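As a next step, the fold was encoded as tokens, giving this record:
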Amino acid sequence: MFPCLAHRPWQVLCRRVYLQQRATLSQRPSKIATPCFSWKSGGGVHKLWFSFPDSRVTSLMWTQVQYCSTSGSDKTGSPAGPVEPKPTEKEQAAQSSAKTAGSKTQGLTKAESIQVKVRAVLKKREYGIKYTQNNFITAVRAMNEFCLKPSDLEQLRKIRRRSPHDDTEAFTVFLRSDVEAKALDVWGSQEALARERNLRKDVEREYQENIFRNQKLLKEYKDFWGNTKPRSRKRATFLQGPGKVVMVAICINGLNFFFKLLAWVYTGSASMFSEAIHSLADTCNQALLVIGISQSVRNPDAVHPYGFSNMRYIASLISGVGIFMMGAGLSWYHGIMGLLHPQPIESLLWAYCILAGSLVSEGATLLVAINEIKKSAREQGLSFYEYVMQSRDPSTNVVLLEDAAAVLGVVLAAGCMGLTSLTGNPYYDSLGSLGVGTLLGTVSAFLIYTNTEALLGRSIQAEHVQKLTEFLENDPAVRAIHDVKATDMGLSKVRFKAEVDFDGRVVTRSYLEKQDIEQILNDIQQVKTPEELENFMLKHGENIIDTLGAEVDRLEKELKQRNPEVRHVDLEIL
């Protein structure tokens, strides 16, 4: 930094740095905190260090450097004043040779001037804990929260912003500060505005209390505005897919229950009683499935923003619990009572005929459920076993398992009743009842487990998650994807969430491609002061943020278009 110091043999030097702004030394104050700069040399190694008593000496000023000897220092060790050291023989020879050679340097001067550059920064603004002056609010919020009328909003500044909804590109908002000022102008004071808000809350509370008295009117209102699906579409859900399977099963199981009940009354067979209870449990459970399917097709509302698709899992879960309590419980009870108090059984001919008819009907329903599951599994690229184990369609799964258990139960009951007819021992019939109860308990446990897993929020297949992630990573605006979550919401609906690290250069370039570069260059050339620079950066910075939001919307829209099962996408900027 100071090449002239390399010619100095002094062991210790002390520099004084004085602040100077184009002024002479005589105009400077006499008492200035002086930082000490020390110099050591030894063994061919030179060391220079600085000690500043005050950090303010580093500000943007001119400084004067003086070299002082420590020989004249006082008791405190501070230098007594600037002293010109005596040159050595080598220095005298170097100076004489420099003078004769006509060198530009004339030896060491007593003072050298250096310039220190310090970057200029803008003063940080303090916004406080609550700052809402730049907030935007919609017309609905302005009318609800500030008790304004549409005519009051017509006089305010209208700002067009990018819409967060897929069906609209832009919408109108208002500055919150303008709305607050207009509310004070309309109502006169904050107290009057607060009284009006409380009055409207009381009216809303009264409306909520009376809402159950007007259910029919409310339903017609929702149908008119499209908040619920038309009735024709609800009926259509029971003519195809899982709804068709459930309706066929509920009709057949209802008839089976009626005929099995007559056979039990006629014969008194414990196995026949278990089969009658089995058919009754199936009928009731499938009635629950009908309710679940009808509720699951409802559109989302303000209370349930993600819809009602989980109603199928809830109905299937209740169905599993019902099978366990009604079917398995009563079958075990009747079987145990038959073992404890055996009774003779009447002719089983009619029982065999009814069981044969039940086997045919239950088998037909089972085939309908199997075909529907095969079709759905093929559409989702899953095997039959994976589709059933993952409970992708809970309603069809319930019908499948119930009918499979019914077919096995009919075979088991017929076998035990045959053994009783051959041996005359009623214990075989009671064992058949216990076997049917155990079969129903196993089915109910499986349904409870699979539907509970689905309600807890189950991730979709890893291959599908990888496909969605690769689509985002292949976009030029995306650098990396983190914390990916893809949850199955039921009815083949997926909710996708990910942390996205965007490439700021690509986003900025996308913004610049839509701008007039010549105009931006002219604006840059006109920037002369920090205030003008701040205004320029704030203007384009806000537009770049809007461009980033548009990139997020574009990715979400393309992700939904390429993957129709993805209904909700949450991309968070990392």
Observations:
- Residues 462-573 form a domain with the Alpha-Beta Plaits fold (CATH 3.30.70.1350).
- DSSP finds 18 helices and twelve strands in the chain.
- The first strand starts at residue 13 and ends at 20.
